[in-house]
């Protein structure tokens, strides 16, 4: 089995996890820049701890990251050596509009991405650009409270207008928001939201979600006006919830947990909120600031394809003992219990290759739009041998098993899949923990959790394996 001709093999990164140079080139301060390494990171990411500036008591991994800002030519050359057909990256909003809503874009920031896209095309690599990847300008958080405020829609559209006009001849594929459903779980990271005393978190989260969904729809319309041949997708943090048992209450709980995520994509793909979403908000006392114009825009601005990240499936139950015993991790993004049939990674993420095929089929059954896997990979603690080699067979095993299921979904189930950009082709800063030692890459970066290291790049065993996978269009998985 192999993939059809034109399949977009590649890798995915985010500006805030790899670029660094946070205060160079006219770039303004962004939400990720103030998310510290250490125990305060999760409280900040969830919006429970307010940190809108940097201080001397914390370290901030995004400030240097892996310094791709200065090394992108070297990195893209390595992607080209692997044979990438596609590179998913994000544009840093504050490189283009330092305050988030400036009337004049920052030319130095615009030129940086011009040069980066040119470098991609030099190696025959199509850029897939995430417009907003966990990236809210600090100036807009101070001014509006982030996506709590409807005026964020106009700021986002101003940013979109600048990049669509500038890169209309260089970028065909766009994503409006990265893992849009994460704003329910990591509200500051996803939407620049800090919860103030006395505020109703559910009201704020769903209102912010609505503003992002309207902004996404307006961006789709704008993109098609400026770039008639482009494709614009949405992006979901995916992974099916399984019921822990066949007890009907567990099955219903799993369905409800999945709906938390589909809420966004239903709106972006179908152009309207599903009936259960209105009822759910009504029960929670949530009142959306939703106008007739919003509803019309949502209908007109549906996405062209569905993209998603997949790292693991999830499992849920209504059994209070199991929930108390296994769902107690205060830093878990998704409340989940252990699936007894699966093994887990070093970071506790359960490994479920077949779940990728389940997720692909579920999404296509639901939306009937082309699919794109834009994140999938294994975070692990790599060991550098004395001769500099890195034998990451565990990463190869993980990816081989997932790609096999992807091949079945296309060849046996007949699903239209545009591409596969694995997460972190080069080691980068972990979004959730801020670590460097949780490595995903085919390319090793000499940088440690404490910030030390030369930043030198080197090829792991998986680099050569993935090169062969791409060269044979998925037929040779080693």
TrEMBL record:
<dbReference type="GO" id="GO:0008422">
    <property type="term" value="F:beta-glucosidase activity"/>
</dbReference>
<keyword id="KW-0378">Hydrolase</keyword>
<dbReference type="InterPro" id="IPR017853">
    <property type="entry name" value="GH"/>
</dbReference>
<dbReference type="GO" id="GO:0016052">
    <property type="term" value="P:carbohydrate catabolic process"/>
</dbReference>
<dbReference type="GO" id="GO:0005829">
    <property type="term" value="C:cytosol"/>
</dbReference>
<dbReference type="InterPro" id="IPR018120">
    <property type="entry name" value="Glyco_hydro_1_AS"/>
</dbReference>
<dbReference type="InterPro" id="IPR033132">
    <property type="entry name" value="GH_1_N_CS"/>
</dbReference>
<protein>
    <submittedName>
        <fullName>6-phospho-beta-glucosidase</fullName>
    </submittedName>
</protein>
<comment type="similarity">
    <text>Belongs to the glycosyl hydrolase 1 family.</text>
</comment>
<dbReference type="Pfam" id="PF00232">
    <property type="entry name" value="Glyco_hydro_1"/>
</dbReference>
<keyword id="KW-0326">Glycosidase</keyword>
<feature type="active site" description="Nucleophile">
    <location>
        <position position="375"/>
    </location>
</feature>
<dbReference type="InterPro" id="IPR001360">
    <property type="entry name" value="Glyco_hydro_1"/>
</dbReference>
